[in-house]
Structure formats: C-alpha cells, structure tokens
Design goal:
Number of strands: 11
Helix content: 25-40%
CATH superfamily: P-loop containing nucleotide triphosphate hydrolases
Structural class: alpha/beta
Length: 276
C-alpha cells in the first residue's frame, strides 16, 4: 500500500543573484517501510523531507505535479489542513535536539504541550502519556527527565526525547533527518532499534535521511541517492554497497576503512552529466 506519493517535486529559492534550485524533479513512492535518502551536504535531502510537511517558507517555493499522503493532496491542502496533519499524522525528527527543544522549558512541559492544546487532555492525563512515550524510547528514569531542561541531557538522551515527542500522536509517517549523526555508536544502535521497532510494530512509514551509507545499507529497505537536487539512483538497501552509478560509487570510495591503507582518501570525480 502506497502511503506517500511524490511526483516531480521542485524546491527553489529567489536570491539576489537569481533562482537557486534546491530540489529538481524528485519522484518517489513510500509504503509502510524504511526509505533511506543519502547524498552529500546540499544535495537536497532535507529540503525533500521538509517539503512533504510544506515547511518551506518564502522566499522558497514548492512545486509538484503530485504530492499525496494517504489520499490527501498535500499541494492543494490549506494551511489549516496541514496543521492537522503535522505532528498528528506526519512527524519530523530534526537533526540536532539542541536546536529543536526549547532551552527554557522543561522536557515534560514540551512533551505535554501538544497533548493539552491539540488533544485537550488534562494535565494528569498528559503527564501519564508523556511518561509512557519516554519509556517507549527506552529512557530508564522518565520522571527525572520530565523535570530536566534540555541542556541537562546528553545528545543521545535529547534525541530520544525528540523521537518520543514526535511519536506521541502515533503518526503514520516519520521523517528522521540525521537522527543519529551526533550519537556514539552504542547509542546510535539503540536509537535505530527503537525506530526499527516502531516501523515493524506500528506499521509506520519512515524516511531516513543520512550521510552514512553503511548505516543506511544495514537499516533501510530502499535507498534514494541524491545529487544536486536530483535522484541519480534508486536501489534496494542491500545492494547499496554495490551501486553502479559513478556518484554513489564515488561516495562509497570516500569512506574510510578500518584496516585499510594509510593514505589520503580519494576525491570525487564529478561529471556534468549527473546533474542533467
């Protein structure tokens, strides 16, 4: 079953020097699966994810032949309709919790805010549901975390809080933008296990945006490779390390290898044809 369908998505920005095209004609479908999007910085990964939620603001522009989520026309939806979808049915975990969590509000207050305003729960009921969400992302002492400020949490703990916050409404689609980039390997594995369980147990669709090709190859079901705003290759995640496109091969060759020779990593030989 197709949960999200995107056809010919374009994102552009008006600047003093002219129009900058950040996303150029991206098309893909997503079921209740784990879809990875990889590429170097500036390739359009995050802009693609934010476009699904229509979070691109002027001077940015979103255009698409079709962008449909579970039967809802996202391009034709009003802002009121989009607000009803954001968080409740489509959620996004931003890259760094330091910039996503309010530094002057306790974690518990931030977790309960949506429950009280959006769902009309009492303070006691919202507290219970927030604690349950923290427990679901394997936070061992949720009551202590509820009373903490974001700066009192480690990077891994902050990322778990962000995931818990996004999952409280039980969304059908989660967009995770570099959710493990600032985490050590052990915590990274725990966060991935949480996301994997949510896709498997809740039947949720996941768009997993990352720079880490090896991680995506292990974790995702399918992969889109982006370069200069375009998808240059789409393949099963298990085949990513054996990709055929020269750009994907170049990215893989740039990865350091444990036990490999001690020499400078190769550069990426770019071709103008990739961006056409």
């Amino acid at each position: 079953m197709t949960l999200l369908s995107v056809r010919n998505l374009k994102v552009s920005f008006d600047t003093e020097t002219g129009v900058v095209e950040a996303v150029r004609g991206v098309s893909f479908d997503l079921g209740r699966e784990r879809l990875g999007i990889v590429g170097e910085s500036g390739s359009g990964k995050t802009m693609t994810g934010r476009s699904v939620l229509r979070l691109i603001r002027p001077p940015g522009r979103i255009e698409a032949d079709e962008m449909r989520f579970d039967g809802v026309d996202l391009m034709g939806a009003s802002e009121t309709q989009m607000r009803a979808l954001r968080g409740r049915r489509i959620a996004m975990v931003m890259q760094d919790p330091k910039y996503s969590l309010n530094p002057v509000m306790k974690v518990g207050a931030q977790l309960m805010e949506g429950l009280r305003q959006r769902d009309g729960l009492t303070r006691a009921a919202a507290h219970i549901k927030a604690v349950e969400a923290l427990e679901a992302v394997q936070i061992r002492d949720p009551e202590r975390v509820m009373l903490a400020y974001p700066h009192e949490l480690s990077g891994g703990m902050g990322q778990r809080v962000m995931i818990a916050m996004m999952l409280i409404p039980n969304p059908d689609l989660l967009i995770a933008d570099e959710p493990t980039s600032a985490l050590d390997v052990t915590v990274q594995a725990e966060v991935l296990a949480i996301l994997d369980g949510l896709v498997r147990d809740r039947g949720m669709g996941l768009i997993f945006i990352s720079h880490d090709l090896r991680l995506v190859a292990r974790f995702c079901d399918r992969v889109l490779v982006m370069y200069r705003g375009k998808i240059v290759e789409e393949l099963a995640a298990r085949d990513l390390l054996h990709a055929r496109h020269p750009y994907t091969q170049g990215l893989l060759n740039c990865l350091p290898r444990i036990g490999g020779p001690r020499q400078p990593l190769p550069g990426l030989d770019r071709s103008a044809d990739w961006a056409v």
